[in-house]
Amino acid sequence: MSSQAPQTPAPTLPPTTDHPTESVAPMSDPTEQTQVPDNTDAISPNASGSTSTTAESSPEANVENNAGTNAETSIDVPLRTIQTFMKRRTHMNKHAEQALTDPAYAHYIVNNTSGDGDLTGIHDLRALFADTEVTPNGAQAPLTLEIGFGLGDSLIDMADADRERNFVGIEVHEPGIGKCAYRAEELGLTNIRIINGDAIQLLQQLPENHIDRIQLYFPDPWQKKRHYKRRFVSPERMAIVTRALKTGGWFHTATDWEHYAFWMVEVLDNLDTLSNYSGAGNFTPRPDFRPQTKFERRGLDRGHGVWDLIYTKK
Q1: For each of the chain's 314 residues, which pLDDT tens digit applies?
Q2: In the list 52, 94, 276, 301, which could disulfide-bond 85, CB 3.0-4.6 Å?
Q3: Which sequence positions are flagged as catalytic?
Q4: Rounded to two decimals, what is the model's pTM?
Q5: What is the rounded CA–CA span in Å between residue 191 and residue 118?
C-alpha cells in the first residue's frame, strides 16, 4: 500500500503579524497549577489543559540563551532519554473510564489504553484508515497528526468540522485518551484514531513524506532554564518531525508562553527544511480551523497572549 497522499493545498490564513512590541504575560489555569520542589521537573499546565506532549531518545541538548537560540548538542553527553512530557495523576471521569474499558470504543484506540504506550507494529498511519467500510475516507485522504492533544477537545472539534480529512492524535494522558474516544463515538466520527505513547518514537517509525499536517498545540513550555532541553521544539526533534512530513505539508504550533514563542521562531526559522508561512520572524493570527480552548479564551479575556506559527516543508 502506498504511503503517499495527494498534495496538501495551501491553508487559508488571516494576515500575518510581526513580533508583539509589548511583553505579554503567559497564561495558565491557576486551578491546575502543580507545585513541585525546585530540584524536580516542574509540571506546567497550559492553554490546552494538558501537561503532556511527547518523549525523545537523543543526546542531551541544552539551550542556554534566554532569547531562544538554537540548541547545541554536546558530543560528550552519553545517549539517554530526555522526556518532553511528564505524566500526571488526575481524576478520570466515568465517560473516559468507559471508553478505555468498553469494547464499543476499542476501534478508536490503536494500542493499549493504560501504562506506557506500546508502539510496536505501528509503522503506517494511513493503514489505520484502509478499511473503507469502517473509515470511508480511505488511506489516501489528507492526514493530520496532533501531538499531545490533552483532553482532545480541539482535536475532536477539528475532526468533526473536516470529516473528509483523517486525524490521528497521540497522547500519554490516559483520561485524555478516554475522553477523546468517548466524544468521537458520541459524534459518530469515522475519521479519527488515537494512539497512546511517545510521539517522537512514533515519528521515527513512520515512512518519510507520510503526513500532510502535524500540529502541536500548547506544549509544555518548561520555563526553567535548566529544563529547556525538554522543550519539544528543538533542532533535533524537529528534524524527526519534518522527516515524516510531506513536502508542501505543514507544521502548526501554538503557545501561550511568550518566551517559548520567540524560542520557537528562532529554532524554526533557522531550519533549512522549513519555511515560515508568514515570513521569517513573524507569527500567524489564529486560523479559524484551530478551535480555541476554554483556558485560551479565559487567558485572552484577561489580556494574555497566544502565538501561532505555521511552517511549510520545502
Answers
A1: 444 444 444 555 655 555 443 333 444 333 333 333 343 343 344 555 443 444 333 333 333 333 333 433 333 333 345 655 455 566 789 999 999 999 999 999 999 877 778 999 999 999 999 999 999 999 999 999 999 999 999 999 999 999 999 999 999 999 999 999 999 999 999 999 999 999 999 999 999 999 999 999 999 986 778 768 879 999 999 999 999 999 999 999 999 999 999 999 999 999 999 999 999 999 999 999 999 988 888 888 888 899 999 999 99
A2: 52
A3: 220
A4: 0.75
A5: 22
